[in-house]
Amino acid sequence: AQKVTQAQTEISVVEKEDVTLDCVYETRDTTYYLFWYKQPPSGELVFLIRRNSFDEQNEISGRYSWNFQKSTSSFNFTITASQVVDSAVYFCALSEAGRIGYGNKLVFGAGTILRVKS
Amino acid sequence: DTEVTQTPKHLVMGMTNKKSLKCEQHMGHRAMYWYKQKAKKPPELMFVYSYEKLSINESVPSRFSPECPNSSLLNLHLHALQPEDSALYLCASSYRELNTGELFFGEGSRLTVL
Asked: Which residue has the higher pLDDT, B102 or B84?
């Protein structure tokens, strides 16, 4: 069975601090995808990044960076110089490769509430 | 702005009412999804449609009835709901062909059952 664990329920930081959100996953599949989504108070889930299981390169996008390590089944997310607008719930998610024509099942972690104070 | 549009944004209904949630996307996606999200919980998959056919039903009670009239529209018909069904209902879509798992979500319909 697939499982995603986000051990940090809530994190509070002061603006301009760096913050890392942890994500640990379990899967028996050799091909899978990992995601981070942001959910602001408006409710919409905003896609941040996708990583496939064969690509362990870390990625940086502006203030965001991701560290994917298959050896520890982790896919951590770091926000550098956090801003108040970063306050949201962040979900890590795992998708099996899926059977053609059947869509994709996206399994979410419990989410981490990030509060950035000015 | 999200490219997946959900209406209504808020809905209050009694346990004997019949109502529907609507979702629309014009990105040419051929897979569409309904997720249910309770407060302070992650979204939980309810249904998946692929090419207008139901491909996944996560053992959802029959008081929730999905419908996919065409590739751009997805409905969720509600009947005889219970107060515990109050939640945020999220619609999503994805490129079936690429099969990469990325889902595009709408802002959700917040349902309150009295």
From this structure: B84
